[in-house]
Design brief:
Mean pLDDT: 77
Strand order of the largest sheet: 4-6-5-11
Helix content: 10-25%
Radius of gyration: 17 Å
Order of helices and strands: HEEEEEEEEEEHHE
Distance between the termini: 39 Å
Number of strands: 11
Largest sheet: 4 strands, antiparallel
Length: 191
């Protein structure tokens, strides 16, 4: 008899969200179960959000990569004096509401993009419709990824990205090459 017992997957609920996170939510968003990951909560628009609204900063403990136990709720940022450091919001008590923003399954679902300013992660909206989950998406050959990589290599403020008009490229432009950005979300890999 062959049978395996998979450990039950923990599902986030609103009861798991610290009070400071709920108090810190902007008035135009709320937390509800995610449409892209049934085990997680997601951030949903309660009003239409116009293109260009900036959210942040993403908050968490600063840790070395070797101290990281889970890569779901964090970004990795390069600091010239410290090297790679993770901004880890795995512990909800250490993070803010931005830890609940999930990755889109495709560029078509994307309505938010990451933005690095002075080694701090922010998110900036594309147009977000009422009652839509707010989702990130970034692919290697996008103008955004290209500019972001250049900015991080030069350790400059991402002013070009902040002012960039961006839309996802056609699927034919996707590359099978794998790589990494100097500023990246740790559970993200390129196509």
């Amino acid at each position: 008899l062959n049978h395996t017992t998979d450990a039950p997957v923990a599902v986030e609920t609103l009861d798991d969200v610290p009070e400071h996170v709920l108090r810190g939510l902007p008035e135009d968003v709320r937390l509800f179960p995610s449409a892209v990951d049934k085990t997680r909560l997601g951030v949903w628009a309660t009003k239409s959000i116009l293109k260009g609204k900036k959210f942040g900063p993403f908050v968490g403990d600063k840790k070395k990569r070797s101290q990281v136990k889970s890569n779901v709720y964090m970004w990795e940022v390069y600091y010239p004096n410290l090297g790679w450091m993770c901004v880890d919001a795995t512990d909800p008590e250490k993070g803010n509401w931005l830890r609940y923003i999930n990755w889109a399954r495709s560029g078509k679902e994307q309505n938010l993009f990451p933005l690095e300013i002075n080694r701090t992660i922010y998110y900036k909206s594309l147009k977000v419709s009422l009652k839509k989950e707010i989702l990130l998406f970034l692919i290697q050959n996008s103008p955004l990824a290209s500019d972001w990589k250049k900015q991080s290599e030069n350790t400059l403020c991402s002013v070009m990205i902040e002012n960039r008009i961006w839309s996802p490229p056609a699927p034919s432009s996707l590359s099978s090459e794998r790589g990494e950005l100097k500023i990246r979300h740790l559970n993200f890999s390129w196509f």
